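Input record (Table S2, row 338):
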Amino acid sequence: ERDYALDRDCKTLSRHVLEQLHSFSPDAQDLSALMNRIGLAGKLIARRLSRAGLMEGVLGFTGDVNVQGESVKKMDIYANEVFISVFKQSGLVCRLASEEMEDPYYIPENCPVGRYTLLYDPIDGSSNVDININVGSIFSIRQQEGDDSDETARDLLQNGHKQIAAGYILYGPSTMLVYSIGRGVHAFTLDPSLGEFILSNENIQTPTHGPVYSVNEGNFWQWEEPLRDYIRYVHRHEGYTARYGGAMVGDFHRILFQGGVFLYPGTVKKPEGKLRLLYESAPMAFLIEQAGGRASTGTQDILDVVPDKLHARTPLVIGSTEDVTLVESFIQDRARER
Ligand code: P6P
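Output record (6-O-phosphono-alpha-D-fructofuranose complex):
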């Protein structure tokens, strides 16, 4: 059969980044090295996940609760430490901010020389790990601004336009790494026999409309009325189909390629919703806009939102331009009528 690795002259992740920047400047070298480390983290996590059922200490809970008030899975801790370890050795990253850690983790030997901050959700959708359904890692890279000598990381509380790179790793039937450094969205597939991520989709563009709406309808009665009206609309109209996997990375990946809309709305009790801005919604918003789609809170572009704290949450409506705009029209029109 055709060997894509050779067809695409084995274009690896690090080489692709350098080509993206048409330069071998220090910044380009840094970004290429950073993406390489992300790839290494992805390989280490994919390897452990692929053997989860065969090894002690991989599945199940640690018994702890994280800063989000969620039960911590053993895989959450392992993946969190993988990112810390591979970036410690990189020399480029001074701080890591993770869903699993209350405060950013500082790597003193890399500060202040290390000019970058990694924000990440090490295992997104970890409730899927024990049932062998896809999960993901989400990452966002920002330049550190100021010396942050008091380690309050206030410079992270800026909008998503400050991201210089973002993406995710999808641990599915194959392991894929999807990233953007602001020059389009590109997907790589891990060839385990080579131990390399090989380019598989370049300059991905999400369709302007798609049939999929992806939302947890179990929350229907907790939503505001305008959102219920949107769900009633897609129920009534031909051409829509529901898909929801319980792990945003997989649901987002489907929409990136096939179009449609993913929603995690606020509820009456939690108007800010569940997903965190800095390391879930903002990186995905960066990607979808690079792919010609949109990401909104329902009333504001995600990339314009300025968080008040590291683990700030926002409602999220993300995907094809026409579908996101339709959801906003329900939320905003109804809001005006109220
Ligand atoms: P619910 C996983 O915990 C996550 O953060 C996202 O990956 C996923 O889309 C969402 O929460 C699922 O939440 O409330 O539908 O189970």
